[in-house]
Structures are given as structure tokens and as C-alpha cells.
Fold this sequence. Notes:
Number of helices of chain A: 7
Largest sheet of chain A: 2 strands, antiparallel
Order of helices and strands of chain A: HHHEEHHHH
Helix content of chain A: 55-70%
CATH class of the largest domain in chain A: Mainly Alpha
Largest interface: A-B, 61 and 61 residues
Radius of gyration of chain A: 21 Å
Mean pLDDT of chain A: 90
Oligomer: homodimer
Structural class of chain A: mainly alpha
CATH superfamily of the largest domain in chain A: Winged helix-like DNA-binding domain superfamily/Winged helix DNA-binding domain
CATH architecture of the largest domain in chain A: Orthogonal Bundle
Number of strands of chain A: 2
Low-confidence stretches of chain A: none
Amino acid sequence: xxxxxxxxxxxxxxxxxxxxxxxxxxxxxxxxxxxxxxxxxxxxxxxxxxxxxxxxxxxxxxxxxxxxxxxxxxxxxxxxxxxxxxxxxxxxxxxxxxxxxxxxxxxxxxxxxxxxxxxxxxxxxxxxxxxxxxxxxxxxxxxxxxxxxxxxxxxxxxxxxxxxxxxxxxxxx
Amino acid sequence: xxxxxxxxxxxxxxxxxxxxxxxxxxxxxxxxxxxxxxxxxxxxxxxxxxxxxxxxxxxxxxxxxxxxxxxxxxxxxxxxxxxxxxxxxxxxxxxxxxxxxxxxxxxxxxxxxxxxxxxxxxxxxxxxxxxxxxxxxxxxxxxxxxxxxxxxxxxxxxxxxxxxxxxxxxxxx
DNA sequence: GGGGACATGTAATTGGTTACATGATTAC
DNA sequence: GTAATCATGTAACCAATTACATGTCCCC
Lengths: 173, 173
């Protein structure tokens, strides 16, 4: 978590509120956070000296603008260089699909159809984000945006194919 | 968590140890758990009456065989029917990629190459699981197995394409 | 004057991991 | 005899969410 905050501050100075908004926009699909984790994290990082907190008043509004320090920048790079704990994807729908033999077939079909619908909504949202941000972000951020787009397309295709397969079958048994 | 345990017990009676082993085999890529969460969960479920615990001794080994009750079966079905909280995938490597502008280009390429290697290892492991289980599981469990296989293939392809793109570029800026 | 976005934070709780503690059986 | 696997559990800890608590500015 701390590393992700550092990552955002590496893109520019911002407030806790802004970090939350940015996470909601850009990394929501593969990482999310609430104020309850952002502010304590910011506090920790400030105490450690990885970020600097500036209390300012901007058009009458008191805010705390955080910026990354050299120490923080070093920590960020170290984290980026460290090996990511091998792929660990938590995907609840798939768990349900795994156990869905306990459901009647039509219910299972419904489940998958609904999931496809959700994915497609996600795709639309991502497209909006894309329209807003393309051209205003660096290519690394673009990579992940494209990843999201391509992944959802893959998933939709996969589940559509699954639906066809299910139609042919009698059930999970 | 409790629901996942119920799911496994829905497939047959087993011990906590066996549940852990099964999770490691079949759902590891999209769900994992440790003893520290399995046993307390089993305890909770027993107290609630969703599972039944039978202390037996089998070839000198004392074990507790858990089985799902009618109540538990109902809870399992309810969970399966409940809408999954819309796709929530936590993928640390992608977060790193998102912020990787702070890394030199060759380092970034290395990062992606290593991730591909890891994915390929995962693929091999999954293939082993496939060889062992295909024919011995119901088609729902097969769905998720195939999903894993197809997903990894997609990911490898995607990252390989990314590498090519990266070669052409000068950096993330 | 009221709703929405801006803005910051804490407290209680949840959900989980890691590490510890223990001990039997089996196969080499 | 010793290492791997089978087997069960607890305690300390950690990371994060939810809900709460508070207040301002801006636009209608």
C-alpha cells in the first residue's frame, strides 16, 4: 500500500483526497484503496520521511499537499525492482463457477451471462477513462490501460464461448 | 472464506488438511488460504451447524473429518446465487508496471521478461494439475481449469507483444 | 438553503497471514 | 534414524474496509 501511495506521489504532488480519486480512476481494476488506508499510510510515510506534508490554504480550503522526498523516491524504485510475489489473482466469480455444480444449469448460465454484462459495463467505464486520459499520461500508464481493455475483451470472449459450451452440455456432472 | 470451505465440503467429506491441499491444487491461482484461516473457519462453521465434525482414528492417525450439513448446503447454494462483488482483481505486477516510468527502459524490459517466465512456470504447473485431475472432476471444475490455462496463454501473449512495443520505444515519457 | 464535490481523519472490526507448537506415520 | 507427509490447532500480528465524525466551498 505504502508503495502505491509513493507511486502516485512520484507522478506529482497531491492531497490524500486526490490520491483516492486517482486510484479510483486508473488502478481500480487491479488495485483499490479507501481513505481508511490512504491517510494512515500517508501519516506513516511522513513520519518515516518518505514523503513531505505541506499544510496550505487554497481558496479558503485547508489541505495537506504531500510530495515525495528523495528517500521516498529511492524506496519507490526499490519496490519496483523487487520481485512481485508471483501472480496472485483473487477472482471471486471464478470461485463460484468452480463450485457451481451445486446449481441447476439454467442458473449457471444466468450467472455467466450476468458476469459478462458486468464485464461489459467495466469495459465502457474503462473506455471513458481512456478517452479522458490518453495523451495525458506516460506510456507505462497507457500499458496498463490497454491491458485492462484487452483483458476484459478476452474475458468476455472466453465467457461467451463458455456459454455456448454450456448450452451443449446437460450439466456439471 | 467460509463459503469456499463449504464449497469443498460440498464435493465430499474431508479433513482440514485435505481442504488446504485441494485449495493449493485447484484454486490456488484465483484463491488461496492457510491453516490459520481454514481451521478457525471450520470451527465457526461447526458451531453454526453448517458442517459436522467427526473425530475418527484411521490407521492410528487421529483426524477430524468434516462433512457439510443440510444447513450448510443451503448456505452454499445461497452464496453461489448471490451476486459476486463486481470483478475485483488484485494484480501486483500490473501496479508495478503502471509506475514503471521511474525505472530505466532495460530494467522495465527485464521486469516483463521475468514476469513472462513466471507465468510460464505457472502454466506448466497447471498442466500437471490438468493431467492429474482431468477425467476425475466435474465439468465446472474443468471450466476453471481451462480458464486458468487460457488466461495464462493470453497473458503470455500480451506481455510478449508488450516487449516488442517496448523495444520500439525509447521509454516511458 | 441544500446537495454535491472537496477535504481530513479516526475507531471498530474484519479477514487474513506468519510463525509457533505438537505429534504420529510412512518410506527410504 | 531421518526426512517427508499427514494432521491439528493457536497467538501475535498486519492490512484493509466500513462506518463514523466533521467541516468548507460552490453552484443551483
